[in-house]
Fold this protein.
Amino acid sequence: MSSSELPVARYRIPHPEGYTQVSVARIGIVGFPNVGKTTFFNALTGLNAPTAAHPFSTADPNVGVAKIPDPDLDEAARLEGSAKTVHATLELLDLPAMVKPGHGAGFGARFLGRLREMEALAIVLRSFEDEAVPSDESGTDALAQAQELLVELTLADLEVFERRREKIVKEATADAGKKGAAQAISRAAALLEEGMQLRTEHWEDDQLVAFRDMAPLTLKPAVWVVNVAEDSGDSLDIIEELETLVPGGDTIVVVSAQLEEEGTLLSPEDRRELFEGLGLGQGALDKVVRAAYRAMNLISFYTLGPKESHAWTIQKGARAPDAAGKVHSDMQRGFIRAEVAPLPVVIGDGGWDEAKKAGHVRVEGKDYTVTESDVMLVRFSV
Ligand SMILES: Nc1nc2c(ncn2[C@@H]2O[C@H](COP(=O)(O)OP(=O)(O)OP(=O)(O)O)[C@@H](O)[C@H]2O)c(=O)[nH]1
Ligand SMILES: [Mg+2]
């Protein structure tokens, strides 16, 4: 698996209006026909969108929500006796299949616009063999599919960048203020022409802003999902080979989408037993969701209490008042200070009050940068 330590911040186009404008994290699922995209979508969302053993069974996108697994939140809610537990979520979009080069016109290309609205991509590669599920439109060679999809995504971006380059280079001759943007767009177009993914390059914030309304697909962090047969276990060879092919910082996970979908029907205990028996550990869904979350540069912070224990999503680097604003706009407006302690410490102490007694709760002001797993109690006045 690619390292989670790699900087991912640069993939994100900075938002001029700041952190509070960050919407829900959205992931688009892409891949060739019959690779298990919808099966994977169902496994993540617990929904029951139709799947079929014939290609192009998905003609319209499916939309759903995946709950981020969070055993620490569950444990904290238990300690606080919370009436309700609210997990962080991801929004998923399951798209009609892309078409292999030379296989005619398909649905996929028509939906690339929808894909541009996503914060990250989950690219599904078929590695399972199954006579009942034709593979003519995809093949079962995950590496070949990855290579072809990298090309498709690059070409899709190139088309948009070439058009923009022509326009902005002209405009920049009359308007010196557009020179920087014209240069950035020209450089990006040249890289795409060479077949490079834009996320493999370093871009300054103002250059990323110049790309903003094109929402380049090759700038989005990707999670590569290798869909293997049920009895394959963790196929490490595929991961190693794929790592040489995909941009550094992308994540690779191996799943059996079918098994994961079946797993959603079992009790948590039975599911664990099944997965461990097959050498799949916790199952891959946790891995996928977490990887995507990390790739989008998002962190969780928590509010705990008897009414509700809640995991909130915010962009890395956000300050305490921005976090408070996620919970309630009044809390941001009237922010005075926040009491803060890491969730594992709170759990170790046996709850928030106990953590306070133990002297583990700090007081932070409005310049405090929220860190992963902070529990926050906001003091405010409006
Ligand atoms: N053996 C096996 N079959 C699978 C696996 N994942 C999906 N399938 C089957 O493959 C067929 C296609 O799955 P879908 O999830 O519909 O695939 P898709 O990529 O969404 O297909 P399109 O929407 O048509 O592009 C279905 O019959 C699934 O049951 C798997 O891991 N192993
Ligand atoms: Mg489908």
The chain is about 35% helix and 20% strand. The longest strand covers residues 308-315. Residues 299-380 form a domain with the Ubiquitin-like (UB roll) fold (CATH 3.10.20.30).
